[in-house]
């Protein structure tokens, strides 16, 4: 979801930024005149919304299930939070002893044993890197302490020299995963991997499996800018909103109804600052080390959360023309792109399904 978030400075909506609108009005409670005014508790035998939210992987994790069995839903929710915690201890650059920190510490020295989950995420990341001509690159972590957009954000612009020193350390092809040996290796000293643009989508994918195995068919999972919805919310599909990149207070400019699909947004409004009239944001172009300038937001719809997470950042970096061309080539992948020109582009598979409420707000 962004190249700097969970990752520090790299892909998509990273650590805790909500890049899509699924608040009460847009998702859980309907919207406008359809909103229910009945606040009474439904009978236990009738299906109703069961919800849980809390902190996971550095951002809010919100779970909802439409079910008559609250006990089943709550046990499944417990398992989801536990799984997010388990994966965070493998994939994070903030958790001591994580696979990624050990991988980074051994860069240029030797391969390190990493878990199956870590190898799988790295494998998907490499596929997305190849699809995007290397613009999505989890080794962007080399820039994560040059630009500061996480809790250390100080609104400073690094020198061209500081950026130039790190660019040679960004190259996904030098991150080697050996499935037979169960290891991963960064071939050059100083390289650093960061999974902030894909790790959360991988966790959402695992959460989907947990809820389905528990027997739940109608549910939603939102972690930062990554969302998966299954089945229906009562008598209709889940209604999701896409945030207006320049409007305040999470206003949406478009909505779509989805079922059994993931919805991931990356935008230049998630973590940013403006200096001398220029917007500096967390999605960095690995070729230049500068914030990408071709897009304002990218929303990807697909079946797999991990792909949507990585592709939302990759397509953002490619820009509207090349990004939409990639989307149209990939099976079961759709997109809504707001370009730097503020023009909304909708992929062929979403034509007639996305309702544009109003044109996105213009502005810097």
In short:
The chain is α+β, with helices and mostly antiparallel strands and 364 residues long. The protein has helices at 24-28, 70-91, 99-105, 116-131, 160-166, 199-213, 305-318, 320-329, and strands at residues 2-3, 10-12, 20-21, 48-56, 59-67, 112-113, 175-178, 183-186, 219-223, 226-230, 238-243, 252-258, 261-267, 272-275, 278-281, 284-285, 290-291, 295-302, 333-339, 344-346, 354-356. Helix content is 26%, strand content 27%.
Characterize the structure shown:
This protein is an alpha+beta fold and 364 residues long. The protein has a domain at 12-33 and 46-86 and 208-271 and 285-356: Roll (T-fold), CATH 3.10.520.10. It has helices at 24-28, 70-91, 99-105, 116-131, 160-166, 199-213, 305-318, 320-329, and strands at 2-3, 10-12, 20-21, 48-56, 59-67, 112-113, 175-178, 183-186, 219-223, 226-230, 238-243, 252-258, 261-267, 272-275, 278-281, 284-285, 290-291, 295-302, 333-339, 344-346, 354-356. The strands form six sheets. The protein has an eight-stranded antiparallel beta sheet with strand order 4-5-9-10-13-18-19-20, covered by helices on one side. Strands 3-11-12-21 form a four-stranded antiparallel beta sheet. A three-stranded antiparallel beta sheet has the order 6-8-7, covered by helices on one side. Helix 2 (70-91) packs antiparallel against helix 6 (199-213), helix 4 runs parallel beside helix 7 (305-318) and helix 6 packs antiparallel against helix 7. It starts with a strand and ends in an 8-residue tail after the last strand. Residues 3-40 have low confidence and may be disordered.
């Amino acid at each position: 979801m962004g190249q700097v978030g969970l990752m520090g400075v790299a892909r998509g909506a990273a650590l805790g930024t909500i890049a899509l609108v699924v608040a009460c009005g847009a998702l859980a409670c309907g919207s406008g005149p359809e909103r229910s005014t009945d606040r009474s508790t439904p009978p236990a035998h009738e299906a109703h919304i069961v919800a849980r939210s809390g902190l996971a992987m550095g951002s809010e994790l919100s779970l909802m299930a439409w079910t008559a069995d609250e006990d089943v839903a709550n046990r499944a929710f417990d398992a989801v939070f536990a799984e997010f915690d388990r994966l965070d201890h493998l994939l994070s650059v903030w958790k001591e002893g994580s696979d990624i920190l050990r991988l980074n510490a051994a860069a240029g020295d030797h391969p390190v044993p990493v878990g199956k989950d870590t190898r799988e995420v790295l494998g998907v990341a490499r596929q997305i890197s190849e699809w995007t001509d290397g613009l999505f690159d989890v080794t962007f972590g080399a820039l994560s302490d040059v630009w500061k957009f996480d809790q250390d954000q100080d609104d400073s612009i690094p020198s061209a020299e500081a950026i130039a020193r790190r660019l040679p350390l960004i190259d996904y092809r030098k991150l080697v995963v050996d499935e037979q040996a169960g290891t991963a290796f960064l071939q050059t000293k100083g390289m650093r991997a960061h999974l902030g643009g894909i790790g959360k989508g991988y966790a959402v994918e695992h959460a989907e499996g947990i809820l389905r195995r528990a027997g739940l068919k109608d549910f939603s999972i939102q972690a930062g800018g990554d969302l998966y919805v299954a089945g229906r919310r009562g008598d209709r599909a889940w209604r999701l909103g896409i945030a207006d990149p320049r409007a305040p207070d999470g206003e949406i400019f478009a909505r779509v109804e989805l079922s059994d699909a993931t919805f991931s947004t990356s935008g230049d409004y998630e973590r940013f600052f403006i200096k001398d009239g220029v917007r500096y944001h967390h999605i960095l172009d690995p070729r230049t080390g500068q914030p990408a300038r071709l897009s304002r937001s990218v929303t990807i719809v697909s079946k797999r959360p991990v792909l949507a997470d990585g592709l939302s950042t990759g397509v953002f970096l490619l820009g509207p023309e090349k990004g939409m061309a990639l989307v149209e080539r990939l099976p079961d992948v759709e997109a809504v792109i707001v370009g730097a020109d503020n023009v909304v582009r909708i992929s062929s598979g979403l034509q007639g399904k996305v309702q544009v409420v109003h044109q996105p707000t213009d502005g810097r």
